[in-house]
User: Fold these one by one.
Assistant:
Number 1:
Amino acid sequence: MNATDKLTGGAGGPPQDPDAAMVAAVLAGDPEAYRVLVERYERRIYHVVYGMVRSPEDARDLAQDAFIKAFQNLHRFRLESKFYTWLCRIAMNVTIDHLRKQKHRRHSEFDDTRVGAAGGQVVRLHSAPDDPSANVAQARMYRIIMDAVDTLPDDQRQVLVLRELEDMPYKEIAEVLDIPEGTVMSRLYYARRRLQDLLAEHRPS
């Protein structure tokens, strides 16, 4: 059985991953097949990265970097994981590297107006069109929540983004971050508890 057969489950066999056919095509010499994977996941990867960096420009650049890196290392993709899980791990690694390099600048130069410009791409604020006061209140609460998320350590923010924005199961988060499932639950617990404490300061008395 060749590499393509392994990816697709062999002759007549079920594929190991819904994306396996595209991966196999790329590895067989058809780089155009990679466009299908990019179009399939570019929005999700952008949202994950944006949840970490909160800059639309950086999120686009980092998401592109993640796809390029994944393409260059596609031959290393292991069948034990879903392609998206593997891709998301690369995106997280690229993002964490970026945050470590830019941490001092990100904290000192954060521009709150970015939330209004791109926040809706990540979390849609649903409100009646004839109730602008409700829309403003929701936008304000969104800024408060995201500012609170910004104070979390990177490892806690990772699990929070993957769980709350991606609705990813604990097991898959553990695969993306290459940590035990128990560690995922622990980090998520402390992240949520810290957010609750921070948000409590903004509740009406």
Number 2:
Amino acid sequence: MNRAVCVEASFIVAMLTPERYTTLATTRWKTWIEDDFRILTPTLLGYEVSSALYRKVLKEQIEPKDGKVALEQFLSMDIESIHLPELHTEASKLAKQFNRPNVYAAHYLALARHLACPLWTADERLYNTVKEKFEWIKWVEE
């Protein structure tokens, strides 16, 4: 069976750094790997994860060495980046529809909708904004 999930940057960052949802995200990830899920994301994931790790170092939330280790762990993860130019248009529409301040998170929504697979997030604001409209968005605590 070919099962797939889409993951959003906050979910990955929660796995890589000590956060409230680290254990939950890591447990879910291990289950996906064991059950042979395809883990998908738009191509912007790497930019967002590396930026989030850098910000955590700058804010002294993690040590520089831990940021480096987290980035190396991320780069070794089995995540399939999907490049679909039409996602930019769809993400712009979704960002406007939900009055989002940017289109980054909307790219994940657009990809999950396009692929008809669940989107997992640890971004509470995103989740709460769209959960009534998109039943396939999944909260890290589910």
